[in-house]
Amino acid sequence: MDKEKEKNVKRPFEHMSNRHKSFILLIFLDVLFAVGAYAAARAIMYAKTPAPPSFLHYEVLIASVFMIVTAAMFIFFDCYNTVWRYAGRIEFFKLIIAYFATFGILMLFKVVLKVAFASDLWSTLIILYLILSAMFSGGLRFFNAIVSYLKHVRGWVDEKQMRSTKRTIIIGAGYTGSLAVNRFINNPHEGYFPVALVDDDPEKIDRKIYGIRVEGGVENLDEIVYKFRAQAIVIAIMSITRSQLKSIYGRCIKYNIPIKIMPAITNADELTSNTLTLRDIKIEELLGREEFRVRQDLIDSSVKDKVVCVTGGAGSIGSELCRQVLKFGCRHLVIFDVHENGMFELDLELGASYDRSLYSLCMGTVRERERVRDVFTKYKPDIVFHAAAYKHVPMMEISACEAIKNNVFGTLNVINQSVESGVEKFVLISTDKAVNPANIMGASKRIAEMLIQSIGAKSRMKMAAVRFGNVLGSNGSVIPVFLKQIKDGGPVTLTDRNIKRYFMTIPEAVRLVLQTGALANSGEVFVLDMGEPVYIYNLACDLIRINGLVPEKDIPIEITGLRPGEKLFEELRYDKECVDTTVHEGIFVTRLQDIGLDEFEKRLDKLYLYSHAEDEEKTIDEIFALVPSSYRNKPTDEQINSPEFISQGARAETGRGA
Questions:
Q1: Could you tell me if 200 and 270 lie in one domain?
Q2: Is 39 helix (H, G, I), strand (E, B) or coil?
Q3: Is 223 found in the same domain as 95?
Q4: pLDDT one-digit tens code per residue, 107-166
Q5: Which of 165, 238, 258, 368 has the most Cβ atoms closer than 10 angstroms to its Cβ?
Q6: CA angle 222, 226, 230 (to 5 degrees)
Q7: What's the rounded Cα separation, in Å, for the pair 45 and 37?
Q8: What does the H/E/C string look like for 310-361?
């Protein structure tokens, strides 16, 4: 029973949080330091000269006022809610202002004491007290910074600690760079020991931040890395553009040391939180150019206050379309997909951010016209973004009939139902693989483009296809595959060292697609400006490096050879297609070659019969009779090195519609 009572007895401060305990402890220590400072100041002042009687008579009052005013000013200037381990200039400034305010109040108290009580309080005592109090209280608060400064600037670092940290060069001697130096100095356990700063501003050269010298600009990086035997580089620039980051990264990769980047910090309070943590450079930050601006008028014309249907809405492109359509203010979103798990996960995501009355989930496949009719009859969409398609090249090489049934006749089902239901606009998501297709997937998308062209020429519904290259991070794309291989220790497998592709982030591609919706008219094919193509080998090396490893040393790269239906390069337009600009600088429209509609419809009928009869051989023959391609067969080494093949590759690089 006694034990039970003992358990129920609350000990002092037990109910308090650690924060409140620290607050009370710090006030107690400040009062203690004030007592010590006052005693020391009094001893110094009156060591040889006796204190005047008028002072001694009121000394208890004087000492009490000194302590109370000091603690009150600390509270008033918020000196108790700071994590002093991470304190910087702002916190130091607050402490100094608190002491100035204390000095002012004590001088006023001196006058009151003289007038009311005829007691002498010497100004020298006040000043001496404040100096000693600042030394005691400030020393407590900045203890970590003082010790770290002595370690770094005066060389008080033990060899064990040096071995456990990386000698780090910080690029950027501005606000973010100074925060980085401060953090590394105060947190050696994080493994970074700042040895030098780099900045292109000539005014900062040879200056010091927390004792660390700005050694030179980025052009001097070679000698700085060599001089300090750098083991890591941290990029700490507050407003760095993609092109700047790409340029700096390009200079740093040859050193084969980890390269990290600091997030942008906009205020000193963030320094006390977990936001100031190094991160890896994202691969999308190293690809291409700055993202294109959003033309809000085009977005509004495309989706605002409209009923929007996204087929394939649970896929990589489709799900991002759904996010942005809701973000940009559609009246209602209809998400149509056969992928059950994807729909479930998308519903969880959207339901956490939007009222579920704003969107509807419709399970079904575009291959079933009746199901498409039911959905369109119920929701009456104004605009349809058709993203439902099989996209994996190797899978479609072994499933030609399925590719045609889904990518061609599924598309035809949605187009026909859109016309029947009075849809205003229809936008097909296409691919650069539809140009001179070497594979069944690309050819099936090219035939879908031809459907848009042929039907769009005679339909009242406005129609268009949007053609773009690879998107970063989509399901099954090369980057997640490479990252998994790197995580598993390699090797990273690559089909050919010279293979190259266009890349764009999913959000940017989708924003451009939405803006293209406003431009759709009579069956055009729009092309997105994808920037310059990227060598996949270089991409693999970058991914290895940003994971802190060295290509071909820590992670081997294995060349496996081109797969069936794979080209060394992709193109965004045919040679005979002319490209015109649009009102958006990132979107171009192609002037398509005429197609013989009668012949096209006859071959389409044959393709329907062969694919639904599961005749793979005849289906493939008919596909490439409908979409002839000189790249269908895997090129031999002799073909790859031929002048004609090389010239075609050069045209592919320059054929992006500028």
A1: yes
A2: helix
A3: no
A4: 888 888 888 877 778 888 888 888 888 888 777 666 655 565 555 554 555 555 556 678
A5: 258
A6: 100
A7: 12
A8: EECCCCHHHHHHHHHHHHCCCCEEEEEECCHHHHHHHHHHHHCCCCHHHEEE
Q: What is the pLDDT of residues 187-196, one digit of tens each?
A: 777 788 888 9
Distance CA 468, CA 529 (A): 8
* Pairwise CA distance, residues 224 & 150, whole Å: 23
Q: Decide if 172 is inside a domain.
A: yes
Compute the average pLDDT of residues 397-420: 94
Burial of 405 (0-12, 13-18, 19+ CB in 10 A): buried
Question: How far is 193 from 113, CA to CA, in rounded Å?
Answer: 54
Q: How many CB atoms lie within 10 A of CB 267?
A: 7
**Total number of domains in the chain:** 3
Lowest mean pLDDT among 132-141, 249-258, 418-427: 132-141
pLDDT single digits (tens) 29-50: 878 888 888 888 888 887 777 7
SS3 187: coil
Domain CATH number, residue 353: 3.40.50.720
**In a domain? residue 541:** no
175 and 129: one domain?
Answer: no
11 three-state secondary structure = coil
Q: Which of 281, 308, 323 is the last residue of a domain?
A: 281
Position 543 in a domain: no
What range does the domain containing 405 cover? 296-470+503-530+574-654
Assessment of whether the complete model's pTM goes beyond 0.70: no
